[in-house]
Amino acid sequence: MCLIHADNLLYTVIRRFVLFLIIISTSNLAAQQHAVQDLALKDLHVKLDSIINNGIDSLAFPGAQLYIAVGGKPIMHKAYGHHTYNRNSPVELDHIYDLASVTKVSSGLPLLMKFSMDGRFDLDAPIEKYYSKFKGSDKAEITFRNILAHQAGLEPYIVFWQKTINDDGEFRRKTFSNKNSRRYPISITDDLHLFKRHKKKMLDYVKKSAVNPNPTYKYSGLAFLLLPEIIKGITGEDYYPYLRSTFYDPLGASKLMYKPIGKYPQEKIVPTEQDTYFRKTLIHGYVHDEAAAMLDGISCNAGLFSNAEDLAKLFQMYLNEGEYNGRRYLVKEAVEEFTTYQFPENDNRRGLGFDKPQLEYDSATSYVAKDASAESFGHSGFTGTFVWADPKHDMLFIFLSNRVYPDRSYRKLYTMNIRPKMHQAVYDYLTNE
C-alpha cells in the first residue's frame, strides 16, 4: 500500500509539473503573440504617420485627422499638422472639417434607408411621387434607385453662382446684399447675403437641366439638393431637426452638424479655401460647396461638418448593420440594400448613395485600397475627406483634411495617392496580424 501510495504521489507530482510547464509554455506563447501584435500595430502607426507627414510636408494638405477602428474599437485616432500652412493652429481631435460630398452618405441617406423599410419610401417609385414640382417634366419618371446609384442621366452639377453674374462680371441686381436682412437672410459669408427667394430659381434650374435619355453611370449631385424638401414632405417636419433627433443626437454625434458658425467655437473649425472665384474671401465655418452655401448651408449634397470621431459613430452604426450602443437605428436589410452594387452589369460600381470598390481595380483612378472587399462601402469629398467601412474585416477608416487650402488647385492628395496608400496599409496590417 505504501508503494502504491508513493507511486500515486509521484504520478501526481509529475502530472502537476507537466501541467505547470504547459501553462508556462502557453502563457509565453500568448505573450509572444501579443508582442507580435503590438509590434505590428506600432509598425502600422509609423507607416501611416510617415504617409501623412510626408503629405503635409509636400503641401498636399496642412493638417488632418485619422480614425481607424477594428471590431468596433479604435486602433488609431490621431490629429496631424495645422489648420493652415502658417502653423498657428494645430489640429486637435475635437476640431471639425467640412465633409463635402461625404454629406451624401451621412445626412438624408440614413433617413431614406429608414423610410425604405418602414413603408414610407419606395426606391423604385418615380421621383414625381415625392417631388411634385417635377410632374410633367422629363425627370418625372426617374426612380430613386437610379438617382441614388447615379444611373439617372442627370447632369453632374450646375454652377449656380455663375448664373448670378451679369455680363460686366458683377452680381445681378437684387441677388446679393452685403447686409443680412429679412430680404437677404441667407449668409454666404459674413459680408455676402442671398435673396430669400433665390432657392426657387435654383430648383428651376435643376428641373430644366438636361437628361440623358439613355443613361449610363454618371456621378451627379443634383437630386441630393432636393432631398431636404423631399424628406420634409415624407415626415411633415423640418429636415435638419428631424435628422438630429433621429440619428445624430441619439448616436452622441454632437459635432456632426450643419452651419457650425455660432454653434461651435470658430477656432475649432478648420478653414477650407481662400475662394478667389465666388466669395472672394477665406471660407471658414461656412460650407465650401457653392450650391449648398446658396441653399443656406443645408443640403444632402454637401454641407455637413464633423470631426473624425463623431462621423465614426454614424459609420460604425452602418458597419454594425444598423445598431449602435445597444440601440437599433436601421434594420439589417436596409443597410444591405443600400450598400450593395446596384447596376454592375452597366459597369456601375455604386450602391445607393454609397460608393463601392471599382469592379475592376485600377490603381491610377481608385482612391480606395486594392484589398477593399466587395462588401465594403464609403464615400470621398472634394475638400479631401474619405470614409470607408468594410464588413468583411469589421474595419472602419476615416481621413479628414482640407486639401483645398489654400485653393482647389492643390491636387497632391490625388497625385501622391495618399488615401489608397494609407487604406492599403491597414489591410496589410490586418492580413499579417
Largest sheet: 5 strands, antiparallel
Whole-number count of domains: 1
Percent in strands: 5-15%
What's the CATH C level? Answer: Alpha Beta
Uncertain runs: none
Verbal overview:
The protein is of the alpha+beta class. The protein has a single domain (39-432), classed as 3-Layer(aba) Sandwich (Beta-lactamase), CATH 3.40.710. The chain has helices spanning 2-57, 108-117, 144-148, 198-208, 227-235, 239-251, 290-294, 308-319, 332-338, 412-415, 418-432; strands spanning 63-70, 73-81, 97-98, 176-177, 186-189, 192-194, 257-258, 274-275, 281-282, 304-306, 323-324, 327-328, 377-381, 385-390, 395-401. Strands 2-1-15-14-13 form a 5-stranded antiparallel beta sheet, sandwiched between helices. Strand 14 and strand 15 form a beta hairpin. Helix 1 packs antiparallel against helix 11 (418-432) and helix 2 crosses helix 9 (332-338). The chain starts with a helix and ends with a helix. The model has no long low-confidence stretch (mean pLDDT 94).
Layout of secondary structure:
Blueprint lengths: L1 H56 L5 E8 L2 E9 L15 E2 L9 H10 L26 H5 L27 E2 L8 E4 L2 E3 L3 H11 L18 H9 L3 H13 L5 E2 L15 E2 L5 E2 L7 H5 L9 E3 L1 H12 L3 E2 L2 E2 L3 H7 L38 E5 L3 E6 L4 E7 L10 H4 L2 H15 L1
Antiparallel strand pairs: 1-2, 1-15, 3-10, 4-6, 5-6, 7-10, 8-9, 11-12, 13-14, 14-15
Helix pairs in contact: 1-11, 2-9
Q: Notable features of this structure?
A:
alpha+beta, Beta-lactamase, five-stranded antiparallel beta sheet, 11 helices
Summarize the structure.
By secondary structure, the chain is an alpha+beta fold. Helix content is 34%, strand content 14%.
